[in-house]
Amino acid sequence: MEFFENRYMTPQGHQLPDAKSRYRALTAIDQSLVVEAGAGTGKTTILAGRIAVLLARGKNPENIVAVTFTESAASELLLRVREYIRRLRQDDFPPGLGDVFKSGISSREKICLEKAEENLDNLVCSTIHGFCQRILKTFPVEANIDPGATIMDERQSNRVFKEVLDNWLHKTLSDENGALIAGLITRYGTNYTSGYRHIQDVANRIRAHRNVKAANPEGFDEKLEEFRNALLSYVTFIKALPVPEPKSKIIADSFTHWCELAQITSNSDVNQLLALIDFPSEHGLVTKNSRATVTTYSQKARTVDWYSALDGTKKSINDARRQASTAYERVRSLWNGEIRLALADQLLADLVDNLKDLLNHYQLYKRSAGLLDFDDLIIGTRNLLRHGKHGLSVRRALARQYEYILVDEFQDTDALQAEIFWCLSSDDDSHDWTSFALRQGALFIVGDPNQSIYRFRGADVDIYTRARKTFPEDRVLSIVTNFRSSASVLDFVNNRFNQPLSEPDQAGYKALKPFRLYSDNAQAVVS
User: Fold this and answer.
1) Whether 419 contacts 383, CB under 8 Å
2) pLDDT by residue (tens digit) across 208-231?
3) Residues near 141 by Cβ (< 8 Å), separated by ≥ 6?
4) What does the CA dihedral 499, 500, 505, 511 come to, rounded to 10 degrees?
5) Between the CA of residue 286 and those of 103, 238, 281, 291, what are the distances in Å?
6) Which residues, including other chains, have CB under 8 Å from residue 122's CB and lie 6 or more apart?
7) Rounded CA separation 258/241 (Å)
């Protein structure tokens, strides 16, 4: 069922609140645009409509690229474009296109649509991975890839990576430089599986983000010195008591050993680092419930020498307890705050450096076996377009081939993918892709930052925000009319999401407007 007629009017005969934005999204084919379209606002309709207008105005299908997030979405979009062409040739206007062709379809436009329909298979409508594969196979020499390489799906690449990881671990554990890996695997006792899974998790993350670099903690040596001083403060106080209280003395002795372990630097052996990290848990120190004070003994215990040495007064005992507690809490605060985090950061930085060797083994294995994974397609395309020798010439050739690039679900695009789209839509070659001047009409992106769900794959609402800021304000269009839900449902959604999605770290919230003001007395249902 069509939710609206071929013109942008509500059932009550009013113009849609975003009618002008919808019209520009369809007709301004000489402008690069951002279309922010909320849930249920007809994003696919807008994409298909703009492609249909491009074809009606004589643009060739082979010069148009539509990138969607899934293969099913690509198939749906292509079917919709085919349907729109057929309907336009019969003077049957699809949604919104009645406003575009107010005087009807001209004979020239029908000829263009007929020709486009015959060659519609030349229109590239695919996922970003499919599009990158097409580019790389066009320029295999420049991209330094095997043109006959097999593209692995996600399941295949995970299996191959695990095999390479297992072989690499076996080699590394038998190597004299494998102390870090061995320490991480064995630190859980005989449960080697836990350590293996931690290493596998970090390895998979680095594999997905190959340019990542673990930041070395700033001021590592200074923080360790502060921690050692805190340990010594407690030890010095306890040992200065005329007769040290037994329990506190045990803790002070442990702190003395701990202080010796803390005589490390950022360049220290990994075994020293692991020993320092594990020491408090092995000795029950500075845990959440642990305490270290000069104990208040019972009346019977007041004959103890250390109690007499403290003048045997309640004030003296309380003062000693307070000083011991303050010194101990200082150690606990530092350890559970900056120190443990700094040690973890240092350990992670060392692990990332170790795992770079694993990635090299993975790349060599794929090359020897004639394999590529999805990440190779993205990274390879980005590197091809940025290549110092071939980059600009390849980009110019692709610009002639793909004059119009349309991107759906842009909020789920990561930084490398965004850079690819900007490289293909501009002749600039500066380091920062967000400074590129886009060719007129070359790039058309549709997205909703409030629906970003793939942060774990590298997508980030910050990438969307940075990309949006590269467009002038008048090139950012808001589509807010929702055809899916009733007014009462949208009121509820707007009230609940406006405030949290308008916080400083969010991309902002645009309230959705109902197409149907009334629900014909039917209950509104959220499913």
Assistant:
1) no
2) 888 777 777 788 889 999 999 999
3) none
4) -60
5) 80, 16, 8, 8
6) 60, 61, 62
7) 21
**Could you tell me which of 387, 335, 366 has the C-alpha nearest to residue 226?**
335
**Which residues face 476 on adjacent strands?**
34
pLDDT at 515: 82
What's residue 403's pLDDT? 98
Average pLDDT score over residue span 399-420: 95
The half-sphere exposure of 14 on its side-chain side, counting CA atoms within 13 A, is 10
Closest among 330, 55, 418, 379 to 210, alpha carbons compared: 379
pLDDT tens, position by position, 255-294: 999 999 888 877 777 788 888 888 888 878 887 666 665 5
315 Cβ contact list (under 8 Å, min separation 6)? none
Q: How far apart are CA 204 and CA 164, in angstroms?
A: 12
Strand partners, 479: 37
The rounded distance, in Å, linking the Cα atoms of 274 and 287 is: 18
Question: What is the per-residue pLDDT across 114-137, written as a single tens digit (0 to 9) for each?
Answer: 999 999 999 999 999 999 999 999
> Which residues have a Cβ under 8 Å from the Cβ of 474 and sit 6 or more positions away?
none
Amino acid present at 447: G
Which domains does the chain show, CATH number per domain? 19-146+374-514 (3.40.50.300), 150-214+355-372 (no CATH), 220-354 (no CATH)
**Nearest one of 351, 350, 343 to 224, comparing CA atoms:** 343
Could you read off the pLDDT of 2-22 as tens digits, one per residue? 444 455 665 666 788 899 999
Which tokens belong to 494?
Answer: 């707007």
Judge contact between 403 and 59, C-beta under 8 A. yes
